[in-house]
Amino acid sequence: AIIFNCSAQHAAVNSGQHDFGAWMPNTPSSMRQPPPQTKGTATLESYLDTLPEVNVTCNNLLLFWLVSQEPKDQRPLGTYPDQHFTEEAPRRSIAAFQNRLAQISQEIRERNQGLVLPYAYLDPPVIENSVSI
């Protein structure tokens, strides 16, 4: 659970923020008016009056862009450049983990080939080994 929360879950909620949040109506940071209380009563004018100011939107775009950048020293999930484990048992566990990650990656890539909008944020090679902002 710890490995998942600090790697894959973080990638799932963090990596696509700029891709999906760059179109401000997807993720408005604030609303200048309360939402309509009755369904079907919103107008274009009331909708536009509700959206945040341009400067607020620009700040959010900058934030989304910053947190979505790949780190320069990225270590993909399952990559351990430092040899902390020299015993056979942990080395087998690491190898099994890396093999499973390779299978998952292959499944994701095959599934994404048939999608108009592929979802690659949970492909193991693009998931950071740990939370990295």
From TrEMBL:
Assigned keywords, A-Z: Dioxygenase, Metal-binding, Oxidoreductase
An individual GO BP term: lipid oxidation
InterPro entries documented for this protein: LipOase (IPR000907), LipOase_C (IPR013819), LipOase_C_sf (IPR036226)
Record-linked Pfam families: Lipoxygenase
Keyword Oxidoreductase annotated: yes
Source domain of life: Eukaryota
Location of the Lipoxygenase domain: 1-133
A single GO molecular function term of this UniProt record: oxidoreductase activity, acting on single donors with incorporation of molecular oxygen, incorporation of two atoms of oxygen
Name listed for the protein in its UniProt record: Lipoxygenase domain-containing protein
Organism: Panthera tigris altaica (Siberian tiger)
